[in-house]
Amino acid sequence: MAELKAKADAVRYAITAPIDLTKVDRTIAKEPAYKTKPKYCLLVFGPKAKTRVWLVLDGDVLYVDRNGNGDLTDKGETVKEKRVDDQTSQFPAGELPSPDEGGSFPGLALYRYKLQGGRESMEIRLSFNRKHWYGVCRDFAPQAKDAPIIHFDLTGPLTFVCPDQPTFIPGKTTTLRFYIGMPGLGRQTFARRVETRGIVGGGARLLAEIEYPSGAPGAKPLYATVTLPIGEEYVDPFEAVVRVPEEAGAGHAKITLLPNLLPERTRPRLDAATLFVPVVRSDE
Known about the structure:
Number of helices: 2
Structural class: mainly beta
Strand content: 35-45%
Distance between the termini: 12 Å
Largest sheet: 9 strands, antiparallel
Radius of gyration: 20 Å
Order of helices and strands: HEEEEEEEEEEEEEEHEEEEE
Number of strands: 19
CATH class of the largest domain: Mainly Beta
CATH superfamily of the largest domain: Macroglobulin (MG2) domain
């Protein structure tokens, strides 16, 4: 099973976004003299990503471009690491002004998690107008030009994101999990709202239409519809177990997520999302 997943490509999103994140400038005006090899991540805010805040990890120090001017040598932009446990450390950055959104973000913090195989995962937590957000990426990049971009459009429409990359294997079951948020730039990079139940209500359901490639040459795709209720975890994902048809072929399955079953009172506005999940046959 692990070998099959290793062959799979990353989940690909195809949504209409207000800005093309690949065109966001990822240059830094001024950097300090680092003590280790730095690792980079860029936070952008607003529908046009006008506010841009660099995060740069230098060993046990995090540089935070608080005023968004691209100068990481300004006073008060370093945060020391605090150990939470053997697998988790925290960089409590405190308040972050946001001229693009108005107001500020209290309690901004970066969490670094140690994973199996020596890998890491990064999570940014922040609040705005009493709404809580997580920004997630697999890892920071060794160069600024390749930095993952986490996009927080805190007042515009949101969509759905998939935090755990699924792999479809014909004849097998897979758990699908989705959150309310917006994709970023980079592998497994996204921003999501916390407390889904508080946004849409505990009884809300998400509709997913799945189009699987057929394993028979020239045959039409296979179609399925799945309803995803809100799960029981404290983080409130929409989740359901799906069984991939035996007849599905290798390639990518197209999943269209529709907010049709969500209550009309849902705020903020939620847009449909399309993503492509790799399908890998166990006999290949």
